[in-house]
Backbone:
DNA sequence: GGGCTGGTAGTCAACTTTGACTAGCGAGGG
DNA sequence: CCCTCGCTAGTCAAAGTTGACTACCAGCCC
């Protein structure tokens, strides 16, 4: 489960055709640089790898009007679209305690149909439940508490995270079931990408790592 | 903030002197292979890197009686101990939403004195509060909600995680303030390592990746 | 007494991530 | 008219991660 691949595939898909810097900007617009490892190096690397693997198609393009080096534009392929939905479904259903996975999944949840999104979130609820049971059984065998002392706090933290994660998921399911948001096939989608040249109202004001001083 | 370094330094430190396989077993005993990237490759890599950087001291040792290749034993150095405490304090105070960092910090929290542990957790509470404020201000500027649509769910998830994380931390602070666990300087410490040859009662029964079929 | 299993201890290549670095162009100041 | 700043767009080496693979020995079974 690669979060960066899901993010990059999703960004390229929403644009139709995008170059690296556009993807990078979209991810910043979504705040992804804050909750995932979406740094320039990772983004460009993911683009190249996925192009090599046939998930994206690369077009060499003349240097942009705004200066800078020649760019490469990417388009998602059929296999890339498949992979995108595979990753998206996995991100929404699997409970692996890494919050960036779920965040990325949420960012693209409306690319699914409402019924499927609900089904996936229900599966997520079951996955959390199973995980919780496995952990508590494993660490509290019949003969009293297994992990004495402060090590037990780690397990307590996990269980607490699982429970609150389940609560939150339940809330989301209710909001979606109640008609919130616009899902695939329900008319004009909510597209959260920046058009070419549009300024990012949520720019952090932080410098990019490579920015000249 | 490298979780693997914290775990490995802590494991070596508790043993006094340990070879890679012992560290690997300790981390499995703590369940770290479940909530962190503590796989054999990472562990051995971390040991070698930290030896190269002077945080650990490596001793070549004759092959063990139980067969297998010659082993290298490691001892923590003064600089390694400093680094261990630096990482530990950071793991407990900084709120970066990565649960493995906090879990690793909890595993070693009793290596600190009770008062310092409490002070660090209080700082953690403040860090969560600041983070929460920054996020909510950033995404809900004066003129109404900034991120409309489903993207707002991502922010809601973060805020929810911050709030429940704060609740849990508060509970931990109370337990510690109430006298739970045995901290540094309070007598016989609770040492969660396996003695040489001791069997691991929490072994997963899962195979190691490299185990022969 | 030969083979199989399981535990000990670790290596390695391929891949991914990180953070620093490069380079061109336009706008604006002096 | 030159110089610096900031934006566009990306590269690269070093570090870290992953999962498969190696090699050795002991005990057991037949």
Residues:
């Amino acid at each position: 489960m690669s979060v960066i691949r899901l993010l990059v595939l999703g960004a390229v898909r929403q644009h139709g055709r995008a170059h690296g810097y556009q993807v990078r900007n979209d991810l910043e617009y979504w705040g992804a640089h804050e909750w995932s490892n979406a740094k320039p190096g990772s983004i460009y690397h993911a683009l190249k790898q996925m192009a090599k693997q046939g998930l994206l198609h690369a077009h060499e393009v003349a240097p942009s009007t705004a200066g800078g080096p020649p760019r490469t534009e990417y388009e998602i392929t059929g296999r890339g679209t498949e992979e995108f939905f595979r990753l998206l479904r996995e991100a929404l259903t699997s409970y692996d305690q890494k919050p960036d996975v779920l965040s990325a999944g949420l960012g693209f949840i409306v690319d699914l149909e409402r019924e499927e999104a609900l089904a996936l979130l229900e599966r997520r609820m079951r996955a959390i439940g199973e995980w919780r049971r496995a952990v508590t059984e494993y660490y509290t065998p019949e003969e009293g508490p297994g992990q004495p002392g402060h090590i037990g706090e780690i397990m307590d933290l996990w269980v607490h995270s699982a429970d609150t994660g389940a609560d939150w998921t339940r809330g989301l399911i209710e909001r979606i079931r109640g008609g919130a948001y616009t899902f695939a096939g329900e008319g004009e989608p909510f597209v959260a990408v920046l058009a070419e040249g549009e300024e990012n109202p949520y720019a952090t004001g932080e410098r990019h790592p490579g920015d000249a001083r």
In short: Chain B touches chain A at residues 30-31, 35, 97-99, 102-103, 106-107, 109-110, 138-139, 146-151, 153-155, 157-158, 160-161, 164, 168, 172, 175, 180-182, 190, 192, 201-202 (CB under 8 Å). Helices of chain B lie at 3-15, 20-29, 32-35, 40-52, 78-93, 99-107, 114-139, 151-177.
